[in-house]
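Regression test attached.
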Amino acid sequence: MIDRKSKGSHAERELVRMLWKAGWAAIRVAGSGVQRFPSPDVLAGNGVRRIAVECKASGELKKYLSKEQIGQLRSFAKAFGAEPWLGIRFDNDQWYFLALEDLQETPAGYVVSQALAKDKGLILTEVLGEFIYKA
Amino acid sequence: MIDRKSKGSHAERELVRMLWKAGWAAIRVAGSGVQRFPSPDVLAGNGVRRIAVECKASGELKKYLSKEQIGQLRSFAKAFGAEPWLGIRFDNDQWYFLALEDLQETPAGYVVSQALAKDKGLILTEVLGEFIYKA
């Protein structure tokens, strides 16, 4: 059993390795979520496209996200010039990537269930492939 | 007196604040220099351009850089799709930004003196301005 913060960092490092393996340059952002400026958890580019990813790892079947988290991801991505993605990794499953308009709204923010991730999410090769992002 | 690592982090945070103030989205990279993948210290974008900055803060009149540090900056920037810059901040002076071809070569790598920085370096407003980067 590892704590939530380690679980998150571990998942981010895994994603960074997967991105490099796929030929994308990727980094983890220092102090994301605790800084005074908006930032994603992972930022990657391939010379043509850039993706800004808010990463979540969950042992539960649902992950809740605040309006602020998603708003900050959106504003960072717009200012930087990157596509905003929510990357989610449920235990014993692969990574799924959701466009922000596919998150399910709640009164307090958003929720992503494993079922929603499997239904609406893309897997990494799809995100990095010929997919054209529509803003 | 603060140690070298704190001095470096402090300078990076200062640069990130300056970039946001200038309307660029900027982040510090987690674990840069200790990771297995190349990475800059600071990465920023304005929706059109991206800059990857290796940051140095120095109390001396010269700063030495290894071939590997500069090589990693160059390869990250190329793979990501960003302009590589060496950002240097001597005590009691402003930031200067040097294109990699303006660094002075030594047998072991590169050196940047305060005089070279003032002579060849751009200040931040010049880097972020209408300057067109030639690869």
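Expected vs. actual: identical. Chain A touches chain B at residues 16, 20, 23-32, 37-40, 43-48, 50, 76, 78-82 (CB under 8 Å).
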